[in-house]
Amino acid sequence: MKIIPIRAFEDNYIWTLIKGNNAVVVDPGEAEPVLKYKKENELNLVGILLTHKHSDHVGGVRTLKNKFDLKVYGPKEIENLADIVVRDGDIFEILDEKVEVIKTSGHTEEHVSYLIENNLFCGDALFLAGCGRVFTGDYEAQYNTIQKFKELNGDTKVFAAHEYSKTNLKFADSVMPSEAVSSAMKLVETLEKEGRPSLPSTIGMELDINPFMKAGSFEEFKKYRDIRDGF
């Protein structure tokens, strides 16, 4: 299975899973980039995985559903778009690959992530050196989500939905500077110059550079989240 990023808006990635001529997209916030990539690469779009309800993640779904015979998987908060509503612990197959659903609430109430082999598609729940804003106000839920990510294998690849890496690393350097953070910034800047995504990272990398993953308590996590919101 190949995993390809399709860029959307200013900083979104629509991660595209490809096996043979069949493809599945994650969080298609707009349809046009997906349609263009599908046509150029002669792919059959057979499924959509949705992590949460925000428009920059679901805005292209109706157009794609109207054009193609495909299945849409997503959490209860977008059951109007999902053919199959997924819940924590669900396991299903897509492209002949096992998909495990992990509830990763905090950014939104029903946010989910998808684990496929050692590939984590986590929407806005986890970023390189960061995590999503807690729009629910339920900071404990987001903290608990981070604890779930900590339990994954260190080599798990983290396919976040946004290219926020430089800003997140600047924040990380301001609250817990380290050689690992400096090295990550150099790498991200090199990739940017080459026109390449900074993602995926890995869980192991996040444990080294991500203040929210390194926080030793809920209070420390909340402190970093409050500072980051005003950064």
Describe this entry's structure for a reader.
The chain has 231 residues and is α/β, with parallel strands linked by helices. It has a single domain (2-163), classed as Ribonuclease Z/Hydroxyacylglutathione hydrolase-like (Metallo-beta-lactamase, Chain A, 4-Layer Sandwich), CATH 3.60.15.10. 35% of the residues lie in helices and 26% in strands. It is built from nine helices and twelve strands. It has helices at 32-41, 55-58, 61-67, 139-150, 165-175, 179-193, 203-209, 211-214, 218-229, and strands spanning 2-8, 12-19, 22-26, 44-49, 71-74, 84-85, 91-94, 97-103, 112-116, 119-123, 157-160, 201-202. The strands form two sheets. Strands 1-2-3-4-5-6 form a six-stranded mixed sheet, with helices on one face. Strands 7-8-9-10-11-12 form a six-stranded mixed sheet. β10 (119-123), α4 and β11 form a beta-alpha-beta unit. α5 packs antiparallel against α6. The mean pLDDT is 98. Residues 12-162 form the Metallo-beta-lactamase domain. GO terms for molecular function: hydroxyacylglutathione hydrolase activity; metal ion binding. InterPro entries: Clx_II_MBL, Glyoxalase_II_hydrolase, HAGH_C, Hydroxyacylglutathione_Hdrlase, Metallo-B-lactamas, RibonucZ/Hydroxyglut_hydro. Its cofactor is Zn(2+). Belongs to the metallo-beta-lactamase superfamily. Glyoxalase II family.
